[in-house]
Design a protein that fits this description.
The structure holds two protein chains of two kinds. Chain A is α/β, with parallel strands linked by helices. Chain A has helices spanning about 20-30, 65-90, 105-120, 130, 135-145, 160-175, 190-200, 260-275, 290-305, 315-320, 325-340; strands spanning about 5-10, 35, 45-50, 95-100, 150-155, 180-185, 220, 220-230, 240-250, 285, 310, 340, 360, 365, 370-375, 380-390. An eleven-stranded mixed β-sheet of chain A has the order 5-4-6-8-1-9-16-15-10-11-13, sandwiched between helices. In chain A, strands 2-3-7 form a three-stranded mixed β-sheet, with no helix packed on it. By secondary structure, chain B is of the alpha+beta class. Classes of the chains: A alpha/beta, B alpha+beta. Chains A and B meet through α3, α4, α5, β5 and α6 of A and α4, α5, α6, β3 and α7 of B. β5 (about 150-155) of chain A pairs antiparallel with β3 (about 125-130) of chain B, so a sheet runs across the interface.
Chain lengths: ~400, ~260
Amino acid sequence: MQRPIAIADYSVCCALGRTRHEVAARLFAGEQALSPAPFALPFPTLCGVVPGELDPPPAGLERFDTRQARLALEALAQVRAALEARIRRYGAERVAIVLGSSNAGLDTTERSFARYARTGQVPPATSLHERYAFSAVLELLATATGARGPMLFVSTACSSSGKALASAARLIRAGLCDAALSGGVDALCEMTVRGFRSLGVLSERACRPWSAARDGINIGEGAAFFVLEREDESAGPALALLGCGEGADAHHMTAPHPQGEGAERVMREALAQAGLAPGAIDLVNAHGTATPQGDASEALAIARVLGGVPVVSTKGYTGHALGAAGAIEAALSALSLEHGVTPASAGAAPVDPALPIRVVREPARSALRAVLSNSFAFGGSNVSLVLGRLA
Amino acid sequence: MTALHVRALAVWTPRFPSLEAFGERRASEPSLPAASILGARARGRASVLTRMIAEVAARAAEQARLELSRARLLVGSAYGEMETTAQLLAMMGEGDGALSPARFQGSVHNAAAGVLSITTGNPGFSSCIAAGAATTAALLFEARALLAERGGELLVIMADEKLPAFFAENPAFEPAAAACVLSAHAGAALATLRSFEPAHEAPPAALAELGPTPVAPMLALIDAALRRADHVVLPAIAGALRVGLSYAAPQSEDA
């Protein structure tokens, strides 16, 4: 068992809305937020697009302007006060920034590349260091917040931000920092939509995790940030990151292990880190992307580890936000804990009778003790998080 | 604070294809990494970045007598699979913009870690990180936290391939990969990374032989260990990190 890490504050910005309040209202009302892709594609699909115009970086930081940077700043704004309080309390060198992303600044670079392909000229706004590289958002946030502790992006495709939260918790437990801004951010990119189409796993309609009619995923975007700190410093009664499990399928680059063996291992590791028995988990926010194979293998793993626990996939509301998905779904799990509401698994009806799990069909109000959230990725990278309350 | 004991080192670049060649700056005709651990089929599909990572992983693991099927793996790369990403960007502008599924799955930052995990049947911990020029410093922070959490040993790799033509306005650099096996236990250490403090001096300039590769700080760390230097300064996102090194006293001949 590992020490819990307190969640001092958290934010979420996704297709459901740009604040915790907006997201909770629409999630618990069962409103799906999928819409046509915001760019031209030679095939139909739906995407989870963050609504409205996002503000550019402030004066002096315009050179970092990408959609990824704007999403990061949107998520930062909601937790900024909590973060600045930790910087004052612990000192800037003791506050880390540990984020997850799969795409980095690809959203902007793909537009620059299209112009380059047409003209042979690299557009002037193109910058490897300030608009493409992962480090751009680290530099932006370090400058914007004044934090000077350890800084890194975890990039393991769709498990990135779940693993970033695990990494931040580890840094705090090891005494390498006292608090961390952690979570994930990814902007919608044409390349990833086309890429999942090339793999034959992109749905042309709203995705339907767990449904007998499921036929693939929708791509989404967004950001979710957590301010994490040592549990003994928390003013409480805080939510907490209780445990994390990380591992690999060692099976295939894009297909999950058919029996969900890798998924099972990380769920068991997360429970062990949290010091919880399976019966203490009241809800699973599953990876649940709505691919036939992925949902089937995850369901087998959940059933073996957690029996008949209620299971929801929130990707029917938000789409799959790739590298940001782990953090967004951790934030949605935190909203469930905070509000005592279990959302319905959007698009699930009729539930596939072959899946040995208890899919949540209607929203329900009841106090939750702990929620387990899964994220699985290309390369067989798996992460499972357990969120709950400080004892 | 956790000290990191270095049990093995490995370097591969096209002109310095071994630790010894790098240490002596003995350049040879450019070559490709053999990456024989991947097997012919996976090697044929692999990018230069993935091949480099596989090559230094195998060499460092062999030196440390670490089984790759059980090793925990931490990979750093400032930019990741750039050549594959550039190929996908080009495909988007051709015909109806259909992408190659093999290229797409190979474009993620953790492609090499995934290939290694699958090739060696390793279901254990692996992670991949990026922090630009500060990636080596970030690897050391993550390594210290991991070894504090889990103990044992950790295979740490830093690699970047050359930039595609689209980014040619940036100074060119050679592909490079470097690896070390770090341990929580002091036995048989080549060197010990014993202190980690904010630096009051600037990191050293890039290695003239390789250009401004993001792997330069890892190579500087390895160079310091080879030359038994007492410290090395690594760039961080905010400031710089001074890493203090120490070495076990050499055993006498008649001991």
